[in-house]
Amino acid sequence: MEREQQLEAWVQQITALDEAAQKAAANHLDDLTKPPGSLGKLEELTIRLAGITGKKKPAFSRKAVIVMASDHGVVEEGVSSFPAEVTQQMVHNFLAGGAAVNVLARHAGAEVICVDIGVNGEPDHPDLVSRSVRKGTANMAKGPAMSREEALQAILTGIDVVQESVKKGTQLFVTGEMGIGNTTPSAAVTSVLTGVSVQEATGKGTGLDQAGVQHKANVIARAIELNQPDPNDPIDVLAKVGGLDIAGLAGVIIGSAALKCPVVIDGYISTAAALVASRIAPACRNYMIASHTSEERGHVALLQTLDLSPMLQVGMRLGEGTGGVLCLHLIEAAGRIMDEMATFSSAGISSNHEMSEAEL
Ligand SMILES: Cc1cc2ncn([C@H]3O[C@H](COP(=O)(O)O)[C@@H](O)[C@H]3O)c2cc1C
Ligand SMILES: O=C(O)c1cccnc1
């Protein structure tokens, strides 16, 4: 089957959330010994997780963060404060268990799946998922980052990695990435798909100074001008000014939604991928849990466009899936509330249902 049709078949699998399960979860939350709604976003999260899984009290014993690693040709324009070889070096760090995401994933009981979807090198490790589409993108300031077929292949790879992991029992995914320079294609994708200016979408990434950010914005504006991505064709946008990591994550999100797994969205790059995914498959938006607000400029515009409200605001701007994995503690907490809290009747506490209309 053609790649475009394969993707369409996955998109067609994504259904609306289970309303009956959501209602059952909401009713149970209202029976618990607390004023209705008083657990705030934990309650909204619980209801959404019920809708995604179709279970009033979903449990996620097996969770995985998928770290899509790839290189970006545009780095030769001087858009990052770190050299491109750090991508491959960090891949080895993930596989050795020493990166921030490894520490936070261990703490949250999640597996780290590191995927080479386009590293410019020869990373090698028994635990590496080697699914390279090409060895880094081309420099988007000089031409398209990749072909449409390569973008489709990267999306389908993301779906495939999810499918393989679901077969092993994974029930919930977190998006993560590693790719020096990847805030540059993320900003390009953000500007094209949300309509905010390149300036508003461009931030300091790993730590550019003001002049560096201005230079980065100029490179992005040039790439958009040169390649003319079609804002109504998300795959065209990915191919011309995107990245293999972003495309792979769009696939992770579409695959998670198709297989009824919640997908926790990390920071700026992951949310750019989430917007691409939602433009390809609007129904996948409801399967996304926004974890945190990144400090990277443009993240808020992405979240607003997706109408997602993140759980955490902790000033992070790292990526890798770190903010997403941190949010797993809240998902676990929401589950414990549903499982362990007493109800008004079990604890013998008067609920406001017992008050008369006049008293209320
Ligand atoms: C050591 C190190 C570890 C990282 N982990 C995530 N990133 C993050 O920084 C990069 C994006 O920023 P920019 O577009 O400015 O290059 C990505 O690799 C992202 O995952 C890292 C960056 C570095 C240097
Ligand atoms: O929010 C992110 O994901 C991010 C921000 C800056 C650099 N790397 C990642």
TrEMBL record:
Instruction: Give the catalytic activity.
Output: 5,6-dimethylbenzimidazole + nicotinate beta-D-ribonucleotide = alpha-ribazole 5'-phosphate + nicotinate + H(+)
- A GO molecular function held by the record: nicotinate-nucleotide-dimethylbenzimidazole phosphoribosyltransferase activity
User: Under which EC number(s) is this enzyme classified?
Assistant: 2.4.2.21
Annotated Pfam families: DBI_PRT (PF02277)
Catalytic residues as annotated in Swiss-Prot or TrEMBL: E320 (proton acceptor)
Q: Copy the pathway line from the protein's UniProt record.
A: Nucleoside biosynthesis; alpha-ribazole biosynthesis; alpha-ribazole from 5,6-dimethylbenzimidazole: step 1/2
Q: Which UniProt keywords apply?
A: Cobalamin biosynthesis, Glycosyltransferase, Oxidoreductase, Transferase
Family indicated by similarity: Belongs to the CobT family.
Q: Which NCBIfam families match?
A: cobT_DBIPRT (TIGR03160), PRK00105.1 (NF000996)
List the PANTHER family hit by this protein, alphabetically: NICOTINATE-NUCLEOTIDE--DIMETHYLBENZIMIDAZOLE PHOSPHORIBOSYLTRANSFERASE (PTHR43463)
Primary role: Catalyzes the synthesis of alpha-ribazole-5'-phosphate from nicotinate mononucleotide (NAMN) and 5,6-dimethylbenzimidazole (DMB).
Checking HAMAP family in the record gives: CobT
Task: State the name under which the record lists this protein.
Answer: Nicotinate-nucleotide--dimethylbenzimidazole phosphoribosyltransferase
Organism annotation: Paenibacillus gallinarum
